[in-house]
């Protein structure tokens, strides 16, 4: 069990550029979550995957955001035409199985700075 | 609406002193409850969780929390704080169906004085 990994750990981009983040969950965890954490706030839910299916998206996830999880393994979160308000820590978490409560295991996050 | 309130943004305690971090929630049913800790530049580490049963739960690093249904609270406690406990602490409600996503509080930043 190597834990949840995220890449890159830090990303600095200019406004208007596109960025993509990757999350590798703990193997055999079929639940995967993305959260966004801005300075001084707790993480806020963005989206949820069960295997490869994206089953819920928050209203925070504007049309510029897209996430996918091909083959139910790793996941990517893409932000198009970045804005300064997108600057935040993007956290990925995974959880085992379905139909029962299990805690979520968080990755170290990707810190995005939009200049 | 579902929400989590952590009324204390910052708390400062002396090393060796006791600690209590407050958490109140609003949820339509008995929620799943969690406390996570986040050190600078790090992800979230689970301290403890409550799903059902005994309302006093023990966690890692000497932390415990008590679920009080009547007060909609899940306060975190530690009898003697160590300097390494300085971090940000987040209380979270886990939704009890569907995605089991979390709703987090805004966090409490703990400073420990030597």
Helix content of chain B: under 10%
Give the total of beta strands of chain B: 12
Output the helix-strand order of chain B.
EEEEEEEEEEEE
Structural class of the helix and strand makeup of chain B?
mainly beta
The rough form of chain A would be described as globular
Ranges of chain B with pLDDT <50 over ≥5 residues? none
Task: Report the β-strand fraction of chain B as a percent range.
Answer: over 45%
Average per-residue pLDDT of chain A, rounded, comes to 93
Query: What structural class results from the helix and strand content of chain A?
Result: mainly beta
Cα gyration radius of chain A (Å) = 13 Å
In total, the number of strands of chain A is: 11
Form type of chain B: globular
- The number of helices of chain B is 0
Helix content of chain A: under 10%
Treating each run of at least 4 consecutive H or I residues as one helix, how many helices of chain A? 0
* Greatest interface: A-B, 26 and 27 residues
How far apart the termini of chain B lie comes to 41 Å
Report, as a whole number of angstroms, the end-to-end distance of chain A.
36 Å
For the biggest sheet of chain B, the summary is: 6 strands, mixed
Give a brief description:
The complex is a heterodimer of chains A (115) and B (114). Chain A is mostly beta strands and 115 residues long.
What does the model show?
- Chain A contains no helices and eleven strands.
- Chain A has 115 residues and is an all-beta fold.
- Chain A is globular, with a radius of gyration of 13 Å.
- Chain A starts with a strand and ends with a strand.
- By secondary structure, chain B is mainly beta.
- In chain B, strands 2, 5, 6, 10, 11 and 12 form a six-stranded mixed sheet that branches. Chain B has a four-stranded antiparallel sheet with strand order 3-9-8-7, with no helix packed on it. In chain B, strands 1-4 form a two-stranded antiparallel sheet.
- Chain B is globular, with a radius of gyration of 14 Å.
- At the A-B interface, strand 4, strand 5, strand 9 and strand 10 of A face strand 5, strand 6, strand 10 and strand 11 of B.
């Amino acid at each position: 069990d190597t834990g949840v990994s995220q890449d890159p750990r830090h990303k600095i981009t200019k406004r208007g550029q596109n960025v993509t983040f990757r999350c590798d969950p703990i193997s055999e965890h079929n639940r995967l979550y993305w959260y966004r954490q801005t300075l001084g706030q707790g993480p806020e839910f963005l989206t949820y995957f069960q295997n490869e299916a994206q089953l819920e998206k928050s209203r925070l996830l504007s049309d510029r955001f897209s996430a996918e999880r091909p083959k139910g393994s790793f996941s990517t979160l893409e932000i198009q035409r970045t804005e300064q308000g997108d600057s935040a820590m993007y956290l990925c978490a995974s959880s085992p199985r379905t139909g029962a409560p299990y805690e979520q295991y968080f990755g170290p996050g990707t810190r995005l700075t939009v200049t | 609406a579902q929400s989590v309130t952590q009324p204390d943004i910052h708390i400062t305690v002396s090393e060796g002193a006791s600690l209590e971090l407050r958490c109140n929630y609003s949820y339509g049913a008995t929620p799943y409850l969690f406390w996570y800790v986040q050190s600078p530049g790090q992800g979230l580490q689970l301290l403890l969780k409550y799903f059902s049963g005994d309302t006093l739960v023990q966690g890692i690093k000497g932390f415990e929390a008590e679920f009080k249904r009547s007060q909609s609270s899940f306060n975190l406690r530690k009898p003697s704080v160590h300097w390494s406990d300085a971090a940000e602490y987040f209380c979270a409600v886990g939704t009890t169906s569907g995605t089991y996503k979390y709703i987090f509080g805004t966090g409490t930043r703990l400073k420990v004085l030597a």
